[in-house]
Design brief:
By secondary structure, the chain is an alpha/beta fold. The protein contains eight helices and eleven strands. The longest helix has 15 residues. The protein starts with a strand and ends in a 35-residue tail after the last helix. The protein binds S-adenosylmethionine (SAM).
């Protein structure tokens, strides 16, 4: 039986039954997708969980992208898509996992240099910048609370590496007035590359209270090393207050006492 809304004189929209408070049932997603897109448009769910959005988008002939941090979510979604759309759906989408090991990262570098570069930048905490002479990404930080914003320029190399590339990053550091240059490489650096990096010298980081190497080389191996991966880049991740400077707030107590 059709229920009519007497005010608008249209068929009444049936209420959505929810089992838990944050649940987003397929009917709700159908309404959102219907109201905001046409067949062929692209639907993105960046926290796609069990895949209701992508399943509904597929049903409604939209293109879709789903992102989830949990591997199990991807498995659940693939299973759900197969059940609803049959095995042939497997040929119509692609799963792009984040490299979970050094071997995965090497395979990604062989397969797709740009995807490898994007992954390496994310992994060190940098943002991709517009293609520029020798720079793939940038990171900003503060050494101390009233200090100027400092720049780290990043270069990622997914293939062979040369001393010339390290020299080129040194040039980019000077050009951009960057405090630190970060050279991320899939291959181990040669002694010539290390020597070139050392030539860039050090600077005194007030935040860390010690000298920091200005041109740092990080290998993909380092990014998976249980010890090094916690802090692959040597820079003050948190700005430190300067004690005694007039007008500054009281220093924040830390676990090690006051800085
Ligand atoms: C409530 S569920 C999403 C439900 C989904 N949007 C839907 O409509 O059915 C939230 C999901 O976000 C994922 N998640 C949490 N943090 C994330 C992150 N940083 N990146 C990607 N996914 C993340 C969780 O693994 C979880 O599957």
């Amino acid at each position: 039986m059709q229920v009519w809304d007497l005010l608008s004189f249209r068929p009444a929209v049936p209420p959505i039954k929810q089992i838990f408070p944050t649940e987003k049932p397929a009917t709700l997603l159908e309404r959102i997708i219907e109201a905001s897109s046409k067949p062929g448009d692209l639907v993105l769910d960046p926290f796609c969980g069990c895949g209701t959005t992508v399943t509904v988008a597929e049903r409604m002939q939209r293109r879709w992208v789903g992102i989830d941090i949990a591997k199990i979510a991807i498995e659940v979604i693939e299973d759900r898509l197969r059940r609803e759309h049959g095995d042939s759906i497997g040929g119509r989408y692609e799963v792009r996992p984040e490299p979970a090991s050094l071997e995965d990262a090497q395979a990604l570098a062989d397969e797709d240099k740009l995807a490898f570069e994007a992954w390496a930048l994310r992994r060190v905490g940098a943002q991709k910048s517009h293609p520029d002479r020798g720079i793939d990404g940038r990171m900003y930080y503060h050494d101390h609370l009233d200090g100027e914003t400092k720049l780290i320029v990043v270069s990622v190399k997914g293939g062979g590496v040369t001393t010339e590339q390290v020299r080129s990053l040194r040039g980019a550091m000077e050009r951009e007035n960057a405090a630190i240059g970060l050279f991320v490489t899939r291959r181990r650096p040669t002694s010539g590359m290390r020597a070139e990096a050392a030539e860039a010298g050090e600077y005194y980081s007030a935040g860390l209270g010690r000298m920091v190497q200005r041109l740092q080389i990080v290998t993909v191996e380092d990014l998976f090393d249980p010890e090094k991966k916690k802090r692959p880049v040597d820079f003050p991740a948190e700005a430190a207050p300067i004690l005694g400077a007039p007008g500054l707030p009281e220093p924040i107590p830390t676990a090690e006492g006051r800085r």
